[in-house]
Structure formats: C-alpha cells, structure tokens
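Bit of a strange request maybe. I'm writing a small parser for structure token strings and I need a real example to test against, not something I typed by hand. Could someone generate the tokens for this chain?
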Amino acid sequence: VNAFAIPGGFIYVTRGLMSSINTEAELATVLGHEIAHVTNRHSVQQISKSQLAQLGLGIGSILSSDIAKFGQLAGAGLGLLFLKYGRDAENQADAGGFRYALGQNYDVREMPKVFETLGRISESGGGGRLPEWLATHPEPGNRIEHIEKMLDTVPLDQRKLIVAREEYLKHVQGMTFGEDPRQGYFEGNAFYHPQMRFQIKFPDQWKKQNLPQAVVAVSPNEDAIVQLALAGQNSPEQAASQFLSQEGVRAGNASRTSINGLPAASSYFQAQTEQGQIEGLVSFISYGGQTFGLMAYTPAGKLSSYDQVFQSTIRSFTELRDQSKINVQPARVELVKVPRQLTLEQFNAQYPSSVPIEQLAIINELEGPQALIPAGRTVKRVVGGRPAGAS
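Reply from user aminoacidic:
Good idea to test on real output. This should exercise your parser:
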C-alpha cells in the first residue's frame, strides 16, 4: 500500500493504495503529494547511489562498489530500504499536494481520509501486507491536523469541487487485491511460482520476501542471505563463468551436475567488496527455457556455519507439478450497490468477502462492523484468492 516518486519525475501508485481509497479526489491529493516531492527535489536529495544499486538487487549485484555493508544489503533484499522523508519535506509535499489538487478543482476535504486509511492499515498490520507507506512517508503525528489547518484557509463551500466517488470505484472493479499469487507466493517456508512452474524451500525462521526482481531470504541473525533471480538465457555453465569472472571474485570448488533432474552449474566463491569479504555458494539452473541463479552468501569466516543450509536450499529448487498450487488465483475487488440500508456486518453476511471484516471496513472508509451503509451506496468487497490464513 504505497505511492512514491523517484528521480526523473516518475510517480507510482500501487494497487494496494488504489484499492484502499474511494474517490478520485483522494487519488488526486496522493498524486499531488508525490508531484510536490518531485518539484521540491526531495527524492534527489535523499536517494544515494548505494540505495539505487540496492533497488536493482540482482545476481552479482553485491559486488558493486556502491553496495552498502552486508547488513544493509540484507535489509534491501527484504525491501526495507525505502526513501524516507523528514517532517519538513512531508509538510511541503502535503501543502503542494493540497495546492495541486485544489488547482484542478478537486475537493481537498477528501485528503485527510487518505491518511486516516493509511494509519488504520498500519495499525491493523494491513491484513498481512507491509505498511510500506510509513516506510517512505514517516507519519509525524500531526499530518491530518496540518491539512485541516490548510482547509480552514480556503473557502470551499461555494465551489463545485470534484469528488467523483462512483467514477473512481469503476476503475477498481475487478482489480487484483493484495499480492498476486500467480507471481509467486509463500506457504510456510515453501515458495511457489505458478506462472514459472517452480518451487523452492527456504530455511526455517528466515525472513522472506518476494520482490519483483528476486526472491530473498535473510537469516534470523541477518548474517546470511539467499536470493533467487533470473540470470538470462545463457547455459548454466556460461552464467557461472560470467559470474566468476567478475573483478574481485575468486572461484572455489566448482561442479557441473543436475539438481532434481535440471542441468546446473555450481561453485563456491569468495568476493572482496569495499565493505569486506564475503563467501558463499552460487548455482545456475536451466529450467523452462531460462537460467535461474541462486546465490547464497555470508561474511567471510561464517560459511561453515551455513554451508549445509545453503546446499539444502539450492537443492530444493524443482519443477512445480501440484495443480492446486499452479491454479491459484488472486483475490479481486467486486463492487456492490447496496439495495437498502445495512450495517457493514449485515452487508458482509449477505455479500461475503474473503478478507476479515475489519479490513473490509478500512477499504470502504467505514468505522467498523456496525457502521451504517445508506441505501444505494456502492461498497467494495473482496472475492476469491487463497484461503484465509495462508501465509
């Protein structure tokens, strides 16, 4: 659930945020907020070359001279390194977003609802989703109060301002809600990727994250990391040779073998970075017309502690054959126009959702199960998806 701007003026709004707000005016204030970050050059001031390198985390990227020390890299692998703005930058962006949205005749009285929703998502744990907004936009505690003070300075009652609730909701009808399991999902320590038809098992108690560019797991002590990513269409031998020929990399014992019947090339390695030496095991596996790279590494001197774990994880990569895992579908947003006045609890009984009622209240901007929904109002529900409680 997030929106963010990066250098170059590119602005992104996630499906999670779009399915959590309810009006075009709310979206306009979010976009205005991010535009203000761009025009005030906040992202340029905050982002560093090392963070850019970490955002592009991939096989071999640890060898970049711009990569931060190992512990920070582990954090990047988990998607925990986001740009953070300070109080002044956030106040500037709030004021800019308010001004830009109002300039396009949007009803900025909708703006506080965005922050209320984000706060509720954070407090509830977001139904299993990371409250990423608060990672990129620290909440100083007075954001809503700051916006309300701005509202007091402009006469709005006599203006015909745009809210566009119904028009906006039409755009979220059928939208995937939450993570799309077809792009990969975890069940316990097992990771399944239905579209690419593979599975792998990560170690117990490790922190795991499915990122767009890699699947990453970090040890409980944050002193070891395993990552899986696509490594191109070269053969495993060619991919291994390319990896091991990088400057600063020294190859160890290597082997050409198969992993669960799939052609593979593996090698131990050591690598010298500006932050110190690392050592680990890298394997390249040919499957489905592509080569997958599995890299497991730890600071020098600790490989013996993790060697068996690394080997076991890499050897668990195999074809996914279980049709129940392959055929999984994402949850989706469905709109319902309420025929008569109902409480949210009554609505949920008549039009069940596959998410908890507390989460349903948040995405519909209702206070709770007993909140009244007037007749004729369009309400979001969530249908389908993996069974409740699946990790």
